[in-house]
């Protein structure tokens, strides 16, 4: 047990407001906040009310003013284009200020929304920071989502402007983004005033006259814009994530709490530091800016801390091989690598002995961070033995914006416990609760919950939906935030996250709603009813499996309908859903009240002993589908 970690955690627990007041000193405030926390505002309270700041200025201008303008802020490494580009803090600030000027010239002002639909190019980060500079609220949509998903986010966020790229680059194919944007805009009720399109050489897009403009031309012609002061409680971004319905939830991130919380995590968890002078240690998060991990640890947190961040366009395997991650680490002197366990499983499958690690100089790599899904102990043990470095599993969600639990290199706590998500970060008190809201004994699984108030940086509400926030997170266990994860806290205080308590599945580290997929299947004219469950996958962790009952009288071949269903999910939700399997069955198992037994089927599909509820309507249905489900 690290006494330094414990002392830090206890100091937060004893006096949370004093702890956060101290942490807030890492940030440049334009006007000081009136209170550290006000419990009377919003669903559970608001952090740093009365304060004003600018997040982009804290990410960029502040470091330049401190003499670090020539330090490298961002290294872009595209395995897809075979190109590397480096941006100093000054160069990045200059591009951000110009793009902010271009946005302002097109009417974007504080509080306006901008939707960003881009692959892993520096222009995506520049667009995010340009919005932050103006106090505009960005909403980044992951490139693997299809037009209807993009349209639903556009209709919810009502952006004044959309920033997109002409295409993304996936192994073996160019993904045209612009036609997806065009289809989404045709579908959406809300129409933005303009679209800025970043043209990539691999596939230039036709621009719609009067609506679309070239991103780089607009940036080049613009007058740089100064940072605009915003309230600590003003939104910095809205990031949509899967909820339990087909409609994504707009997770709101505010400016003040976000900056304070993120800046604090870098020395505490990562132990990555800027300097001396223009030098800096390098951190690399191999995620995508479309996910919260990308927002936090590719863009905002490293820049707030003034260190160097790597943005990688490519995959862990196939671009060109399973040594891609080790090549990037060696080439850029990466000190900490952050990825999802699925990426390691993909590497392990192709290079089980880790031979490719030995072809690269990993002497600067000090630790590996894992999140996005539960890391199975065999994978954790494999990579720990291979690298001989601390492996730090950390548990969080789009809602929290930064880790709920982790291990803490800066506080001397790195002991390895494969399968565990680590200790709570200062700011979070985590407990496993029983259905009545009572505490579970240590070591017993319950619903994981966080005692209110949530710390700075966590979503204070949902976009335009305080009530939805209360319903989704606060009502089940009064006084607690319901994480939607099941797990336990062991006798050492380590947290174990075992799975979701709702219908969300985690596919290759991507959070997806089976409910949303069921809505798509149910829309097929031949489908009477359906269920989607998560089935174990050796690389992706989980993949969706659809079971459908056809309407009576449908006489078409099952395989033909299944292929249509696979195509439909790809078209409506996107390739990221990885929906490749639909089975036609005669009936679905149900309780007498008509509830489909998804959990029981999931257990059967994953080789677990199924729990069959006594209220089952007809046990024979389970026997019928058992051979189809067997793993
Ligand atoms: N734009 C367009 N399409 C995209 C996309 C993007 N940004 N990202 C993924 N896709 C497509 C892929 O091309 C693939 O399409 P396909 O069905 O035609 O093959 C599909 O969406 C699924 O993609 P992905 O989940 O990336 O699976 P994969 O089989 O291509 O690769 C892994 C598997 C494990 C290598 C990959 O998922 C991975 O690197 N995962 C890490 C996840 C991660 O970083 N998560 C963030 C949380 S920390
Ligand atoms: P997202 O909002 O996309 O970041 O997904 C959050 C969900 O991913 C969590 O609620 C968990 O179910 C899962 N998750 C993320 N990190 C971990 C982790 N380290 N261990 C277990 N599950 C995790």
TrEMBL record:
It is an enzyme of class 6 (ligase). It comes from the Bacteria. Its EC number is 6.2.1.17. GO terms for molecular function: propionate-CoA ligase activity. Keywords: Ligase. InterPro entries: ACAS_N (IPR032387), AMP-bd_C (IPR025110), AMP-bd_C_sf (IPR045851), AMP-binding_CS (IPR020845), AMP-dep_synth/lig_dom (IPR000873), ANL_N_sf (IPR042099). SUPFAM superfamilies: Acetyl-CoA synthetase-like. Belongs to the ATP-dependent AMP-binding enzyme family. This is Putative propionate--CoA ligase. It comes from Acidiphilium multivorum (strain DSM 11245 / JCM 8867 / NBRC 100883 / AIU 301). The gene is prpE.
């Amino acid at each position: 047990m690290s006494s330094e970690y414990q002392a830090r955690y206890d100091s937060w627990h004893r006096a949370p407001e004093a702890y956060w007041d101290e942490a807030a000193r890492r940030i440049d405030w334009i006007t000081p906040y009136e209170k550290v926390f006000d419990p009377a505002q919003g669903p559970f309270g608001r952090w740093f009310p009365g304060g004003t700041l600018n997040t982009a200025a804290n990410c960029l201008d502040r470091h330049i003013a401190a003499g670090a303008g020539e330090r490298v802020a961002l290294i872009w490494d595209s395995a897809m284009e075979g190109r590397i580009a480096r941006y100093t803090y000054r160069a990045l600030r200059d591009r951000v200020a110009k793009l902010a000027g271009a946005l302002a010239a097109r009417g974007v002002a504080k509080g306006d929304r901008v939707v960003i639909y881009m692959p892993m190019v520096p222009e995506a980060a520049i667009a995010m920071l340009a919005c932050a500079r103006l106090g505009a609220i960005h909403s980044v949509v992951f490139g693997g989502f299809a037009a209807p998903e993009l349209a639903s986010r556009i209709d919810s966020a009502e952006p004044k402007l959309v920033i997109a790229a002409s295409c993304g680059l996936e192994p073996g194919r160019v993904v045209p983004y612009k036609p997806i944007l065009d289809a989404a805009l045709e579908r959406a009720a809300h129409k933005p005033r303009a679209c800025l399109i970043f043209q990539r050489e691999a596939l230039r897009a036709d621009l719609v006259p009067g609506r679309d403009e070239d991103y780089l031309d607009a940036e080049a012609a613009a007058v740089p814009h100064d940072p605009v002061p915003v309230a600590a409680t003003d939104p910095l971004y809205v990031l949509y994530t899967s909820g339990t319905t087909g409609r994504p939830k707009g997770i709101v991130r505010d400016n003040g709490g976000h900056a304070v919380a993120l800046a604090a995590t870098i020395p505490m968890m990562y132990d990555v530091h800027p300097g001396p002078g223009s030098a800096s240690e390098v951190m690399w998060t191999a995620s995508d800016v479309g996910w919260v991990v990308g927002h936090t640890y590719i863009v905002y947190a490293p820049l707030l801390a003034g260190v160097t961040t790597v943005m990688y366009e490519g995959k862990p395997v196939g671009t060109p091989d399973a040594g891609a991650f080790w090549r990037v680490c060696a080439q850029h002197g990466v000190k900490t690598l952050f990825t999802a366990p699925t990426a390691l499983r993909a590497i392990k499958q192709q290079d089980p002995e880790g031979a490719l690690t030995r072809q690269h100089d990993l002497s600067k790599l000090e630790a590996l961070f894992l999140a996005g899904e539960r890391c199975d102990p065999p994978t954790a043990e494999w990579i720990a033995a291979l690298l001989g470095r601390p492996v730090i599993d950390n548990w969080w969600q789009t809602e929290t914006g930064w880790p709920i639990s982790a291990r803490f290199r800066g506080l001397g706590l790195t002991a390895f416990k494969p399968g565990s998500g680590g200790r709570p970060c200062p700011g979070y008190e985590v407990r496993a609760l029983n259905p009545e809201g009572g505490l579970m004994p240590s070591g017993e699984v319950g619903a994981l919950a966080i005692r209110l108030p949530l710390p700075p940086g966590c979503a204070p509400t949902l976009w335009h939906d305080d009530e939805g926030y209360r319903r989704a997170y606060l009502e089940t266990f009064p006084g607690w935030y319901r994480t939607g994860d099941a797990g336990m806290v062991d006798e050492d205080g380590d947290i174990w996250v075992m799975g979701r308590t709702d219908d969300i599945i985690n596919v290759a580290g991507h959070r997806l709603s089976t409910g949303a997929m069921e809505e798509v299947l149910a829309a097929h004219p031949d489908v009477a009813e359906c269920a989607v469950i998560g089935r174990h996958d050796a690389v992706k962790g989980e993949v969706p499996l659809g079971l459908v009952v056809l309407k009576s009288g449908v006489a078409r071949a099952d395989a033909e309908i299944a292929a249509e269903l696979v195509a439909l999910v790809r078209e409506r939700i996107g390739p990221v859903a990885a929906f490749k399997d639909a089975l036609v069955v005669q009936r679905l198992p149900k309780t007498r009240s008509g509830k489909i037994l998804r959990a029981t089927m999931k257990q059967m599909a994953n080789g677990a002993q199924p729990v069959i509820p006594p209220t089952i309507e007809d046990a024979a249905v389970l026997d019928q589908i058992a051979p189809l489900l067997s793993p």
